[in-house]
Automatic annotation (TrEMBL), chains A, B:
Key words, A-Z: CBS domain, Cell membrane, Magnesium, Membrane, Metal-binding, Transmembrane, Transmembrane helix, Transport
Single GO MF annotation: metal ion binding
Gene: mgtE
PANTHER family found in the cross-reference section: MAGNESIUM TRANSPORTER MGTE
Native source organism of the sequence: Sandaracinobacteroides saxicola
Name listed for the protein in its UniProt record: Magnesium transporter MgtE
Stored Gene3D superfamilies: CBS-domain, MgtE N-terminal domain-like, SLC41 divalent cation transporters, integral membrane domain
Recorded topology in the membrane: Multi-pass membrane protein
InterPro entries cross-referenced by the UniProt entry: CBS_dom, CBS_dom_sf, Mg_transptr_MgtE_intracell_dom, MgtE_N_sf, MgtE_transporter, SLC41_membr_dom, SLC41_membr_dom_sf
Compartments in which it is found: Cell membrane; Membrane
Length: 460, 460
């Protein structure tokens, strides 16, 4: 009978069950390695990696010891990088070298590149020469480039062969032992001239030449391309795998979508972390690393808050005469901040997905101003009416309504302009946007409201 | 010679070039349909879809008219849904029906489900009976479920066949004309018993039976599973395609990773939009829809800002005696808001990626409190010192430092607890988190600072 890998008793809704975790903890507590291995046996490597992440941190080292060689290459590849660092630190270099040798180049590189240089060297020294060369070659490409993501193992055939000959060759070389999703067709200089999906190969008679089956158009990935661009290209053209070429156009590797899915999710998810200045934002990151990443943005925020507060300080005389202004000022700033963040989130996502380009920047700005006008009129009406009624001061209601409308319009404009401008100067539009936009809406909110209140003679 | 689909002259870095867009606009302006078609001919469907999105909105209808039947199923599938709605509205139901008939079921369903019911019916009425039934069946599954994502076209074979027989059958049925990535093995009741990747089929001798090649363990997707769960499962188990089964366990369809990549990116990217209350956050969305989506969160924010401001209003007497407090209070609130948003972003991402579970909630809370303590001490020291020196008031410096430390600790706690609690009660942890967390940090910031200032007798 078949079993469903995702619904073994240990796993429910893609997550390890609580009672399963407690059973593993009990076995570790009892120092019963045999029971730990028995529990772990049915797990998919991805679930075994989850086990390390979900258990209390103190159990990670005993768990690794109990698993022994069950802690294999696949499991290490699936593990959160912070947790993996911890686990690898408990293993001998020879043990790590053995696991790394079994990995595809891309997974091996992902593991080695995160290690301390001396630990990485110790592992490389323990490896067989070809495995080591493969990894060292990959590491010679820039960080986060296609060269580090690609697998060097691939199937390439010349275009004069018949489909039957290709299949015969594959049957004669089962030792490649790898999964592949397309067969590349290359010229004598090993430059790609076409590609065949395996379903085309399987549905074509043996005597048809490769040249008649292959598709000549294909998406090629330069080996130095940044992984974010690679991910966008995979998304845009719905690729399952793609050829990687060096600067001379020769086929040097292949990237498959399963390595990209992880990057797509990470790149899309990290905008929220960048906008708030939360660094890598991983709950497994050491506390000190999180502190260092976050505190610098809090300090930047402190700086901008001090600047905005000087605006209020300029109006001390006004506030002294009408203290309720001190309670109302933050409302105008807060509503502008929220409106600005909404627009900024939309702009940052549109830039990240290549939807917002130079061709439609002005259209997008005009669009956001229209949305801001509608939002501003609604909020101004509600806030103005509320203040007028609750405080019984019509004029104060009119002043705060005007200030809120003005600030929401400013917020809409800043929410697009700040990320677009950062992007134009090749800075990451997500990273510092929040600081600039909030500073603008705070300062403008304070200034608009207190100036109007003074001018209206409310405090005269 | 081969051409590289992603670097035709019209496209650079995955984007359409500005001069290409201007050339198309000039041809449309001159009403030269032949030239428009000539320019569009080398484009990949994804780039042709981009052309509609990037051109000024007034050109979309003339472009659709000029392209005629070049505007095919693939191009419509690739188009942003708001832009597609606009384009489809300009086409005849028969023309839409023809395009939809050529699509895979998943793409056809994605298009039909977004149409107004009467327009959808008009298109369905124009379709051939089997195509219509296929789409109506898919539409009978819940929105955003696996049943709507799946393709019904798939290859399934019985396990007693030999590999050679499978290949012969495929060669005899080239009319399936579809791409597939794995072959499913089913029992007589059409329940899946195993799966074969095509690379295994190609590397296996003809006389080996399917039963010896197939993998019995596979990840099955229930037809009613939510698309977000499907995406997590694809990510976790690095799937290229997966079988979809009905409630009786029968194979009813297949989902491939290229349909999922889009969802992974969307789900990961939409947290930032939800947290800020930006709705769908699409720059092609009609202005009125964006207004409706965003204004309700601005109103919620207005409500919470009014509540927080009543705290300040309680301290009118205190502020009257020392107006500088009015300028300093927003700083304490702002820094707490930023710290809370950082923690919230981390928690929301960890929940979305299944990393934060009941098993490690307490560990994560303790971790965030430690980070908050370090951040709080740093910011308190800087802010306290700054205020003491700049305003020459040691006691005021001490008060604001204590308030900032307290508020950053509150922010750290609220930043985890709010999304975790929402998630526990099966609410979306991203959606309302921001409102709750900001209300907490604003209120607590105002309260802590003004209370301490009163107690310290600063204004006495």
């Amino acid at each position: 009978m078949m079993s469903d890998a995702a619904t073994t008793p240990a796993v429910e809704d893609n997550r390890l069950r609580g009672d399963f975790l407690r059973a593993v903890e009990a076995a570790l507590e009892a120092d019963d390695a045999a029971r730990v291995r028995e529990l772990a046996t049915p797990l998919h490597p991805a679930d075994l990696a989850d086990l390390f992440e979900q258990l209390a941190t103190d159990w990670r080292e005993p768990l690794a010891a109990a698993l022994g060689d069950m802690l294999d290459a696949d499991t290490l590849s699936e593990m959160n990088e912070w947790v993996r660092d911890e686990v690898i630190a408990t293993l001998e270099p020879a043990q790590v070298a053995e696991a790394v040798s079994e990995m595809d180049t891309d997974d091996a590189v992902a593991l080695i590149e995160e290690m301390e240089p001396e630990d990485a060297q110790a592992v490389l020294d323990e490896m067989a020469p070809d495995d080591r060369v493969a990894i060292e070659t990959a590491l010679s490409y820039p960080e986060e480039s296609a060269g580090r993501l690609m697998q060097r193992e691939l199937i390439a055939v010349p275009e004069h062969l018949g489909i039957g000959q290709v299949i015969d060759w594959l049957r004669d070389h089962p030792e490649t032992g790898m999964d592949f999703w397309e067969i590349f067709v290359v010229d004598p200089a090993h430059k790609p001239v076409g590609t065949m999906r395996l379903s085309w190969v399987l549905t074509t008679p043996r005597d048809i030449p490769v040249a008649d089956v292959m598709q000549r158009e294909q998406t090629l990935i330069p080996v130095t391309m940044d992984q974010e661009e690679v991910a966008l290209r995979f998304q845009k053209y719905a690729l399952i795998s793609a050829a990687v070429v060096d600067e001379d156009g020769r086929l040097v590797g292949v990237i498959t979508v399963d390595d990209i899915v992880h990057i797509i999710s990470q790149e899309a998810g990290e905008d929220i972390l960048k906008m708030t200045g939360a660094g890598d934002g991983d709950i497994n990151e050491p506390v000190l690393d999180s502190y260092k990443a976050r505190v610098k943005w809090l300090i930047a925020n402190l700086g901008t808050a001090l600047i905005s507060s000087t605006v209020i300080a300029q109006f001390e005389g006004t506030i002294e005469k009408m203290v309720i202004l001190a309670a109302l000022t933050p409302i105008v700033a807060s509503i502008g901040g929220n409106a600005g963040t909404q627009t900024m989130a939309v702009a940052v996502r549109a830039l990240a997905t290549d939807q917002l380009t130079e061709a439609n920047t002005w259209r997008t700005i005009r669009r956001e101003i229209r949305v801001a006008l509608l939002n501003g009129l609604t909020i101004a009406a509600l806030l103005g009416l509320g203040v007028a009624v609750l405080l019984g001061n019509m004029q104060l209601g009119a002043v705060i309504a005007a200030a809120a409308l003005f600030n929401i319009m400013v917020a809409g404009l800043a929410g697009v302009l700040v990320p677009v401008t950062l992007n134009h100067f090749r800075a990451d539009p997500a990273v510092a946007s929040s600081v600039f936009v909030t500073m603008t809406t705070d300062t403008m909110g304070f200034l608009a409201f207190l100036t109007l209140a003074s001018l209206a003679g409310l405090t005269g």
